[in-house]
Write a structure and sequence with these properties.
This is Archaellum component FlaC. The chain is mainly alpha-helical. It contains eleven helices and no strands. Helix content is about 90%, strand content about 0%.
Length: about 375
Amino acid sequence: MLKQFFILCSGADQSILKSCSNGEQNKYAGIGATVFFTALMASIAAGFALQMVFNNLVSAIFFGIIWGLLIFNLDRFIVSTLKKRQSFLNEFLQVIPRLLLALIIAIVISKPLELKIFEKEINQVLLTQKNALTLANQDQIANQFNPEIEALNSEIGILKSEVDTKSAEVNTLYNTYITEAEGTSGTNKLGKGPVYKEKRDKHDAALAALQDLKIKNSDKITTLETKIETLKSTYNTQVAKTQPIIDNFDGIMARITALGTLPWLPSFFIFLLFLAIETAPIFSKLLSPKGAYDYKLENEESAIKSWVDQQIYERERIVSTNATVNDKVYTDMANEDEFYKFKKQKTRELMQFQADAFYKKQKTFL
């Protein structure tokens, strides 16, 4: 049962193979098994790849089976169309296009499995790339807000500087009227005289102006700080909005790119393994000697070809013979007086009909 299934997978003519030896049947069963398991591996690989794309198990299984059947059909077609020739060079020349197709299939099959085998290493590379993208994204968004935030902070600094300058001025006036009262500066007279009162009034006026300036600048600073907080909130919103895009940066193309950053040798050997599996049926049929099945298949095909060639030749001879006979018949009729007289009479009648018709037409116009 299993042997017949693998023979079916090989694409061999079962009616011819049944008349061959058991060894010949086993050879084609082995070729069919290689075709089947290659398609099975292709189906699994496609399932892994589509799981990464759709993140849906049912869809991955469904399309993976479809892809496996497609690869199975291609491999079966490649193997079944290989024919043994009289010369090894002719056999190799007919194999070259099929080898190129097998190379493409091997690449397509091996890549998803490489992504699954090296999944942990790829995740580490993607994590590093995501961190770099996150920092770059934050810097890029910050460049949209930093100039305005810096301008607002500069305004706040100016307002605070005004208060500090006024505070320094008030402190100076305070020291002035205190030292005047102590008699250590100014008039150098101890006590609170007219000069002291003048300096004290000047200090009190400056202190009142300072209090007023603090209130005004405090309100302005509060407004500016509110704007800064709004800008920072908008910045955080933009970062939070774009971060999921970076977090989802793990599609199949990103993983293939990340795989390319890893050492190439392990991936290359996996590719060689699948290339060997994919080309095994081709090389096994190419290198195997011409067997009973090949001779019987060639005999059947050549018999059909001979029959077709014979039919074509017979039809061509019939056409050629009919042409020769017709030429001879028409030549003999051209030399007969009776046929000449009949043809002459009919021609005269036809010319008379034409003349009468022309006359009637002209008479109608006149």
